[in-house]
Amino acid sequence: MDILKRHKILPGFGLTLGYTVFYMSFILLIPLMVLFLKTASLSWEQFWGIVATPRVLAAFRLSIGASIISALINSIFGLMIAWVLTRYSFPGKKLMDSLIDLPFAMPTAVAGIALTSIYSSNGWVGRFLEPLGVKVAFAPLGVIIALTFIGLPFVVRTVQPVLEDFEKEIEEAAASLGASRGQTFLRVIFPTLIPSWLTGFTLAFSRALGEYGSVVFISGNMPMRTEIVPLLIITKLEQFEYSGATAIAVVMLVLSFLLLLLINLGQWWNRKRYFVMKDVKSDVN
Questions:
Q1: Is 53-284 a CATH 3.30.70.141 domain?
Q2: What are the pLDDT digits (tens) for 114-158?
């Protein structure tokens, strides 16, 4: 009955559904299936011998660790930037707001070259950090900075619309009941922001995990130290080791899926908790 009702409400439902399934299969499912089929040609010993080498494990640690750290940094400072852009007026606000999207439009290779020139030992910033013992370019710290640069817009652009649509009357009601600014933010505003905030974290993490262009210049690509997984996959492909490249890609895909699944489960739990508390408050009132 629900399907029949949906057909009446949405003309062309069957056609659009068929196109959606075809598009998703052609663009997403078939390439992933081919990836797994290519890896299935390896025996378990061969597969483990590829993905468990010290070089591959070091690349996994760097890629996943740097992606998580950069996403956490962007979650904190991206929230602050979104707050400033929505709550305050100041000269140059529109310019700052437009600059947030610059990592979207800028080619990643250009970003990598710019960051390397700034943070190298003779760069504008690197020349002051080097005497202090802080090495950015050609070090893991440079990888984190590059991933933070390309992931910032995801957090800002997912949190900003929620802050803009937030009703200020709710804040005024909390203030009239004696809540301080900190209590109002933590107990009234932030719970509403959590779903979009976690979405921004997820997008920033996903983008960082597969980033290649901006990292390849500033990292130095030193095996066991600053080599990321996408670069290692490219290296395998250039050496015509297609099975090795697909094996590493499958492990990266599975790990990424599991991490994203945990984040999405956290979002679902928080959203469910939020609506339950909202229903309880409405029943009490």
A1: no
A2: 999 999 888 889 889 888 888 898 899 999 999 999 999 999 999
Domain locations along the chain:
1-40, 53-284
The total of other beta-carbon atoms located within 10 Å of residue 163's CB is: 17
Q: pLDDT tens digits for 73-95?
A: 999 999 999 999 998 888 988 89
Q: CA angle, corner 193, sides to 191 and 195, nearest 5?
A: 95
Residue 75: partners with Cβ closer than 8 Å, 6 or more residues away: 155, 197, 200, 201, 204
Classified as helix, coil or strand, 25 is helix
100-111 burial code (b ≥16 CB/10 A, e <16): beebeeeebeeb
Chain centroid to CA 161: 18
DSSP reduced 3-state for 89:
coil
